[in-house]
């Protein structure tokens, strides 16, 4: 005869399985983790060792001050560029929590929440990936940092397609796979990453504009404009990293690279806010239409 402990164990396992099956957060975490691990393993195997990356302190304007010696170890020689990556974790965790609240209040559907969770779990992991690149200055860490940037922009297009006509997990998988494979351009041309990134940015902007035309909500204008400004700031400030210190020494601490990451973090925030407004609006309109019917 089964013991009480057996019944308890079976009940716990059953409950865990139910949570995994119904929780979009757990599903999103599983999918993002599997994809991220696959990307890291591909980089580890050396598939992209021939890719051009900028590795070394000479590519960063931030200078290590002797004052930091008392507070940080020598290997933490770019503290601003290191600690700024915590911002990605904060924004990602914040919007994961906000998504859970919105889902509980039925402001978002399960399919909506999956995209929010996936995007913001990626954000938290991205912060860690960038920190590893800054701290190690390893070529493979730089490759992973570049590569992981692309799916973020593709997610904007995926979100737009989802709100427009629905996309499903199969559609998400196709677009993300295409985004990941586009990094193969780096094996063909020295500026392959820049080409892939430019295409992703254009696709993301196109998707965001297209869905706004379908749901022209005034409240969404601000987040869209700010996301676009932050996107431009992210690119321009990073390119000017070594030029800004020539204007003022303050940029040897608050460097262009550091400021570009601030812009990038706010870009993620405003993208979340943009699609949050559109998703809630669409679901509200859908519920009102059902009431009238």
How is this structure best described in words?
The structure is a single chain. Helices cover 72% and strands 0% of the residues. By secondary structure, it is mainly α. The chain has one domain: Rhopdopsin 7-helix transmembrane proteins (Up-down Bundle), CATH 1.20.1070. α2 runs parallel beside α5, α2 packs antiparallel against α6 and α6 packs parallel to α10.
Topology overview:
Layout: H1 4-22, H2 24-44, H3 79-83, H4 86-104, H5 110-136, H6 139-165, H7 168-181, H8 192-214, H9 221-239, H10 256-292
Helix pairs in contact: 2-5, 2-6, 4-5, 4-10, 5-6, 6-7, 6-8, 6-10, 9-10
Key structural traits:
mainly alpha; globular; 293 residues; 10 helices; Rhopdopsin 7-helix transmembrane proteins
Short structural description:
With 293 residues, this protein is mainly α. It has helices at 4-22, 24-44, 79-83, 86-104, 110-136, 139-165, 168-181, 192-214, 221-239, 256-292. Helix 6 packs antiparallel against helix 7.
Got a strand count? 0
Report strand %: under 5%
What's the overall geometry?
globular
Q: Using only CA atoms, what is the Rg?
A: 21 Å
């Amino acid at each position: 005869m089964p013991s009480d402990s057996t019944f308890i164990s079976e009940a716990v396992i059953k409950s865990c399985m139910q949570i995994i099956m119904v929780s979009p957060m757990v599903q999103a975490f599983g999918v993002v983790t599997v994809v991220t691990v696959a990307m890291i393993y591909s980089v580890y195997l050396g598939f992209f060792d021939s890719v051009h990356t900028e590795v070394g302190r000479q590519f960063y304007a931030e200078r290590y001050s002797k004052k930091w010696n008392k507070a940080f170890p020598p290997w933490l020689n770019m503290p601003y560029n290191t600690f700024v990556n915590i911002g990605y974790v904060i924004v990602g965790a914040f919007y994961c929590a906000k998504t859970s609240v919105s889902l509980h209040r039925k402001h978002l559907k399960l399919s909506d929440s999956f995209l929010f969770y996936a995007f913001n779990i990626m954000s938290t992991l991205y912060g860690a990936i960038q920190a590893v690149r800054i701290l190690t200055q390893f070529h493979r860490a730089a490759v992973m940092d570049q590569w992981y940037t692309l799916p973020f922009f593709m997610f904007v297009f995926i979100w737009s397609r989802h709100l427009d006509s629905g996309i499903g997990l199969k559609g998400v998988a196709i677009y993300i796979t295409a985004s990941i494979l586009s990094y193969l351009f780096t094996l063909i041309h020295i500026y392959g990453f820049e080409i892939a990134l430019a295409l992703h940015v254009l696709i993301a902007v196109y998707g965001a504009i297209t869905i706004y035309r379908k749901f022209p909500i005034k409240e969404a204008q601000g987040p869209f404009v700010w996301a676009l400004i932050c996107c431009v700031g992210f690119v321009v400030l990073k390119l000017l990293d070594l030029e800004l210190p020539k204007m003022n020494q303050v940029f040897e601490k608050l460097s262009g690279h550091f400021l570009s990451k601030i812009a990038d973090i706010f870009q993620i925030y405003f993208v979340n806010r943009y699609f949050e407004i559109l998703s809630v609006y669409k679901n509200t309109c859908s519920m009102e239409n059902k009431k009238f019917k």
